[in-house]
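User: Quick sanity check before I run a bigger batch. Here is a single chain. Can you write out its predicted 3D structure?
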Amino acid sequence: MAKVDATTMTPNHVKAARALLGVSAEDFAKALPIGVATLRTFESGKDIKDASKTAIFEALSDHGVIMQNGGSPGVRITEPEKWKINLKTTHCSRCGYQLPAVRKPSNLRQVL
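Assistant: Done. Predicted structure follows.
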């Protein structure tokens, strides 16, 4: 089993990882320094810049995704590192309003 890095990552790895994480391309792209069009271009099998591939790979790795090739190709999720960005949509507990992906903490407790 060979581990995958940003240069050997395939579009199928990214699509499978997003499916396991349960995030759409739009939500995933919000957490990246690239646009959703670039993400979709890569997932369709076309080539993108190495910096964009690295950003995608690092974001998935930070969320516990392990990609592998070889005898048992695929994607699996381990325990993501603590204190990383949560890609799932969040709603206000009082009114149900969908909160933005990146929010400013309102107090020290939220920062910690």
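Helices lie at 11-21, 25-30, 36-43, 50-62, 108-111.

User: Great, the batch can go ahead then.
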